[in-house]
Amino acid sequence: MKNRKGLRFALLPLAITICLYVVFYSKIETKPSDAGFWLIFALGASVGVALTRFFQWSDTKGNE
Fold first, then answer.
1. What is the pLDDT of residue 6?
2. Mean of the pLDDT values across residues 20-49?
3. Contacts 24+ apart (CB under 8 A), 40-49
4. Phi and psi torsions of 53, nearest 5°
5. What is the pLDDT of residue 28?
6. Smallest Cα–Cα separation from 28: which of 44, 12, 39, 17?
7. Residue 39: domain span
8. In the structure, what pLDDT confidence band is assigned to residue 63 with cuts at 50, 70 and 90?
């Protein structure tokens, strides 16, 4: 498997989740029993993953 370190691959989950959030915005409720809650949770998780990958990318970019 290829080692992909670009920002494009770090931001892809975030972009997909934001697109889903925009599409289903009118149907989202924040109660934990609803699927919208989990979409908001996934949005937060993807932001965390994107930030982590961005900082890892910037560290490897600075060391080269």
1. 66
2. 79
3. 42/17, 43/17, 43/18, 46/13, 46/14, 46/16, 46/17, 47/14, 49/10, 49/13, 49/14
4. -65, -35
5. 72
6. 39
7. 7-59
8. low
Measured between alpha carbons, how far apart are the two ends of the chain, in Å? 22
Token look-up 């924040």 returns 30
Give, in order, the Cα–Cα distances in Å from 21 to each of 13, 43, 48, 59, 60.
12, 8, 16, 30, 31
pTM reported for the whole predicted model = 0.64
Q: What is the pLDDT of residue 64?
A: 61
Domain total in the chain: 1
> Which amino acid, 36?
G
Residues in CB range of 60: below 8 A, 6 or more apart? 5
Residue 1 lies in a domain: no
